[in-house]
Amino acid sequence: MTNKALSLHWWLLMILGPACLPIATLAEDVDRARAIVEAARRLADGERRWNDRTQELKLKIIDRRGGERSRALVIKIKKYEDDRTRSIVFFSAPEDVRGVGMLQWADPKGKDEQWLYLPELGKIRQISGAAKRESFVGTDFSYEDLAVITQILDWEDTEARVAFIRDEEHEGNPCHVLEFTPTGKDISYGKIRTWIDAKELFVRKYEMANKEGQTFKTLILNDFRLIRSIPTPFHMEMRNESSGSRTVVDFTKVTYDSGLTDDEFTQRALERGL
Questions:
Q1: Which of 3.40.1280.10, 2.60.40.1640, 3.20.20.80, 2.50.20.10 would CATH assign to domain 45-272?
Q2: Of the residues 12, 29, 180, 248, which has the maximum number of CB atoms within 10 A of its CB?
Q3: Domain-by-domain residue ranges, the chain?
Q4: R_g (Cα) of the chain, nearest Å
């Protein structure tokens, strides 16, 4: 091939490349993304496996002007077959929110159900539809966010497409950036990006975005500590990129496999409280 022909060949490749190459590249990115997710799942189902978890935490809600409100919570989670989970959350302080609770039955391959209990009303309200997008008791987490972050790595292709975006460092840690596009799940976000630690295969960061990729919220997890062989974040921060507010979470106690029973994840338990 002459130099002139070679130049023409590369010029055509540059022009036609964007139309032709992404098909193969996309397939490779999907395969790589699924391999990363599957490797993370194998760890979660193997040496990092746990059946139930209890967490005590404190959080600060900081508005865009710097005003702060503090809360204390207890969260209990139990795992079931087919990656289903049940969790219950109670506010323990301050007094004006003490006893407020939320129960969630999450199914990554089916319908998620959530219920809220407000002591002053003495009744349980099921959270559904648009209500799932609402703030969880004044924090920067929505009810929907709580479901997403507990189950996203358990979504199958029927729930969300996943693609590898790039490798990059996050706070000095090499990470794989994956992008999930919900399809079979009733999720308001068009895309959810995750930064998965390249070595340890746990999520260090989430970005919740619209279909065009504009980020609405950013959740960062750090201060990971090994409890048994399970990397556990003791600090989290959810930033609302639209309002400028943020919620800072610090865990004070985390316990695995204390033998939580099914009775602790019912509407009756929600009414009973702490």
A1: 2.50.20.10
A2: 180
A3: 45-272
A4: 21
